[in-house]
Specification:
With about 140 residues, this protein is an alpha/beta fold. About 45% of the residues lie in helices and about 30% in strands. It has 2 domains: about 35 residues; about 100 residues, TolB, N-terminal domain (Rossmann fold), CATH 3.40.50. A hairpin with a 4-residue loop joins β4 and β5.
Amino acid sequence: MAKNGAGLQDNAILKSMNLSAHCVFMAMLLCTAILCGCSKVYMPPAQVEGVHPDYGERLHVLTKQYVALDDHVTLVDDVQQSDRKLLLQLVRDTVGVVVVFEMRKAKDNSLIWAYRHIAYDPKDFIPIVSRVSKEKIR
């Protein structure tokens, strides 16, 4: 009899350990889903002020290409399908062109983050877009 009682006690311990392991696994799975979930981002054409529109189109295409490499972000064609909006802007400055990236919530248009950088030459777009796509867009 004592042997069966000890066996039942061991079985109860195993069940509680399995329940604990199951809870930990589910918590890890939930955290992974939250952290690694794909964001749906809408990106309208770049706005330009005092800059030829071709540069805005170039910035838009470059940004789309870099964002497409990120597994955590999906670009969508309709703002209604998106979680966030990535707005691009080029503004002529006395020494160059200010490149502005803004990430906003799609629902209420509130600002999530903004990044500004001066490009002295159109070749500067590539390192700027690369840095923003790696560090900010997720």
